[in-house]
Amino acid sequence: MITTSKRLEGIGEYYFSQKLREIDGLNQQGKQIINLGIGSPDLPPHPDVIKTLQEESAKPNVHAYQSYKGSPVLRKAVADWYATWYKVELNPDTEILPLIGSKEGIMHICMTYLDAGDMALIPNPGYPTYSSAVKLAGGTTVPYELTEENNWFPDLEQLGKEVTALNQQSKGTVKLMWVNYPQMPTGKLPEASLFKQLVAFGKQHNILICHDNPYSFILNDEPTSLLSVEGAKDCVVELNSLSKSQNMAGWRVGTLCGAKERIDEVLRFKSNMDSGMFLPLQLAAATALGLPKEWYDQVNSIYRARRTKVFELLTLLNCVYDESQAGMFVWAKIPAGYKDGFALSDEVLYNANVFITPGGIFGNAGNPYVRVSLCSSEEKLQQSIDRVQHFLTTAKVTA
């Protein structure tokens, strides 16, 4: 009998992959579910980006394999983008590595640095792929809890003690720490003091701080990079993406930024996994990175209006939320009376035909929460409000 590898033990199918199948089944029954779960932008890229792709794709000499390090044009665009928006200077020849999506970059980093027994610090709640990638690479996850009481920031003093103890007791060492601000799923914005503390923490404990930064332009007036901290390149690498800020999720364009040594190390793994990215796509991405402030303002004006509708929906459900959170989701605490966010999510799905994400899929610290995506039109959000209102009214009448 053919069996799967041991590295897949404990790795389940991605939650949204399973849930989308269930939703598809409900739709086949005529339910017409409104999906407010996944953060896949429904808005198109800028017309100039599509025009670049079309024009470059029509050329006869652009269809060959490309450099493993990406086009110099794209790397220069990333460097200019970082200099303009983050005030971070990067050498486009040595400190930037284009990726076929930043999600793949998470796997590249884990495979590059983790041996069996090595450990990585994982935020709880946090993006589930961090944990999966660590396990697939043969490493061990060490969750660190983020709490609302601590502003969704890690308790670095306590975490430092745990790291010291783990390094003394285990055969492996704590090598990586995954962080992401604006934080997903909580939408918490970073503070300059936190970024400085993270860099100091990485240096003190000889840990590579891996900052995943795809949400810095969404409903945030001050995009920031962890690499902006003095000396950050000594212990930080940063992933970024065009999926959210440029509405290019399906294009699969991301980037890894950091010191030359880190880029070279990750490239040793990456170059064995793919053969580069389609050149016209890279050139279109370079166009996207050169878009002016008006582009981001336009996108955010749409998300801002949608967020108001999501606030209305969550208020209807008696959830509590922070209006200052950033990113393309709203994170909210569920009301008393529900076991967890899964219970509230299922109630809304099966009774109002609206899907919202249970916070527990991001770790057990997310159990008392739900998350709602802003990637649906105001019309769809209003329909969701109307459906939930109808369900709640009907429930009261029959109670």
UniProtKB/TrEMBL annotation:
The keyword Transferase applies. The keyword DNA-binding does not apply. Keywords: Aminotransferase, Transferase. It comes from Pseudobacter ginsenosidimutans. One of its GO terms (molecular function) is transaminase activity. Its EC number is 2.6.1.-. It is an enzyme of class 2 (transferase). This is Aminotransferase. Belongs to the class-I pyridoxal-phosphate-dependent aminotransferase family. Its cofactor is pyridoxal 5'-phosphate. Pfam families: Aminotran_1_2. Residues 32-387 form the Aminotransferase class I/classII large domain. SUPFAM superfamilies: PLP-dependent transferases.
